[in-house]
Each structure stands twice: as C-alpha cells, then as structure tokens.
Specification:
This protein has about 160 residues and is of the alpha/beta class. The chain has a domain of about 110 residues: Rossmann fold (3-Layer(aba) Sandwich). Helix content is about 40%, strand content about 15%. The protein has six helices and five strands, in the order E-H-E-H-E-H-E-H-E-H-H. It has a five-stranded parallel sheet, sandwiched between helices. Helix 3 links the parallel strand 3 and strand 4. The longest helix is centred in the C-terminal third of the chain and has 18 residues.
C-alpha cells in the first residue's frame, strides 16, 4: 500500500508521517511526502496511492483544486483532508469531492487514529466480494452494531 502526504509545512509533514508509522495496520505501507499539490500531480506513480493525506492551503493549487484534478484524471484514492480550514464552504467542497474524513488542525493523535481506523475498515470491506449490513455498519458507523431486541409492550385492545 502507498500513502501520499501532501503538505507544504515540513514539520507538519513529519508529524503526519510519524503518526502514520504509529498505526500498526499501516506499518508496511510506503509513505511518500510532497510539498505541494502540483508536485503530487507530477508524480508518475500518482495512480498507485491508496490513501492521500491532503492539506487545503497549498501553494499554486488548493486541496480542493487537487481533488478536482484527481477526478478529472479518473483517479479515486481515499483522501483525508487535514487542514486549518474550518469554514463551511471548504468542508462542503471536500465532502462533495468524497473525502473520507476531515481533520481540523491542530488535531490529536487519537483523532488521527480514528480517521485511520475508518480507512482500515474501508480496506477490509474492499477486500470482500460481497458485503453484509454488519460490514457496512462497521464502515459507516464506526463500530459493530448490536441491536438488542426488546419485547413490544402489550396495550389493551380498542
């Protein structure tokens, strides 16, 4: 698996890289860093990335402009937006482009882990030929759902 970090701040890139290395399910992944969306788009191996950690405020090309370019190239990696942008418009655009998660900087390692757990649940579903509702509940709701059936109360007739 290949993961691409697109972030213009070298210190933030390093932190994200180190966070990824702390996730047991991702330790075998190849992690590549890019300082801009333009540099990422120039990579000949861009189609090989399973996950992209993407900043919004980048030189020359914004995160959402990068997402538009990915769609234009028919590339559909999973994307987690990690940005200081906390305005409604940026959030709407990112969601409309299909980001898997949206983390507002600064975020904690715990929140980062939650985003990576969502990503790994998606990978588990991707590996299956058919999926169950339980698989989908795990993906979309973040946990195995166990609904306890309660007996219906009896009401008097009429």
């Amino acid at each position: 698996m290949k993961i691409l970090i697109i972030e213009d701040d070298p210190m933030v890139r390093l932190i994200n890289h180190r966070f990824l290395e702390r996730i047991p399910q991702l330790q075998a992944a190849t992690i590549v860093e890019c300082p801009s969306a333009v540099a990422a788009l120039a990579r000949p191996d861009l189609a090989e990335y399973t996950l992209i950690l993407l900043d919004m405020y980048l030189p020359q090309l914004s995160g959402t402009e990068f997402l538009a370019e990915l769609l234009g190239r028919q590339l559909h990696p999973q994307v987690i937006m990690m940005t200081a942008a906390n305005d409604q418009q940026t959030l709407k655009e990112a969601v409309n482009y299909g980001v898997l998660d949206f983390l507002i900087k600064p975020f904690t390692f715990d929140r980062f882990q939650q985003a990576m757990a969502k990503f790994t649940r998606l990978l588990a579903v991707d590996d299956k030929h058919t999926v169950s509702q339980t698989d989908l509940d795990s993906l979309f709701l973040g946990q195995r759902c166990r609904f306890q059936q309660r007996p219906l109360p009896s009401y008097p007739r009429g």
